[in-house]
Amino acid sequence: MLTKRIIPCLDIKNGRTVKGINFVSLVDAGDPVEQAAIYSAAGADELVFLDITATLENRKTLVELVREVASKINIPFTVGGGITSISHVSDLLNAGADKVSVNSAAVREPDLVDRLAATFGSQCIVVAIDSKQVDGQDLVHTHGGSRSTNLETLGWAREVENRGAGEILLTSMDHDGTKSGFANTLTSRLSQALTIPVIASGGGGTTDHFVEVFTHGKADAALAASIFHFNEIEIKELKDQLQAANIPMRI
């Protein structure tokens, strides 16, 4: 069995790491460059950097900040936020990103996924899906979770897989920041329907939550933010406990 991955997430606003609940009520959570170095040294398997207001502010991800972060780490690094073009992806990869994450632009222009995958390879292209339940349906949201679409989450995930995405970053907006557990039913639906890896995001608060998302949720990786930013769970301790629970980890 492939090892599972633990991925800290740096949500960036105005050059600082922030964290909220259900995508709102953001609070400052530290310096992203310092945090990236700490997570890399602490045994994180990968790092995700999301410039969460880039799309709303109609600007590109902060390339120089990406370059600074990349210079401090030695683990795979995914960058997202405001990515709309091949040239922008090229700039981010040249700045040190290993993968890029697209969300709003892919919904607006689905063949962007095809073009990015054809140009850079599927292994570089992550499609982020911010999902929220609306009238009993799991629907895709864009623009930092502020705009609902009529796209059903599983259907959209299947479409972008067919278009060449190499990975799905699935964030449950309903669980985000709550520390009440991941959206395991939704995660499992995607994990079992797709052939590409699914990263589960939103709701991680305890070691048991991670055990559940890897077993019941069938996730390939689990992403979390505040529990790491505020030292509620140490990455090494988490991975040791998951390994003890017979979940294969890279220790």
> What general form does the structure show?
globular
CATH third-level topology: TIM Barrel
Q: State mean pLDDT (0 to 100 scale).
A: 91
Q: What is the CATH superfamily label?
A: Aldolase class I
Strand order of the largest sheet: 1-4-5-6-7-10-11-12
- CATH 2nd-level architecture: Alpha-Beta Barrel
> What is the percentage of strand-forming residues?
25-35%
Q: Total number of helical segments?
A: 10
Largest sheet: 8 strands, parallel, barrel
Our count of domains comes out at 1
Describe this protein's structure:
This protein has an eight-stranded parallel beta barrel, surrounded by six helices. Helix content is 35%, strand content 28%. By secondary structure, the chain is an alpha/beta fold. The longest helix is centred in the first third of the chain and has 11 residues. Helix 1 packs parallel to helix 2. The mean pLDDT is 91.
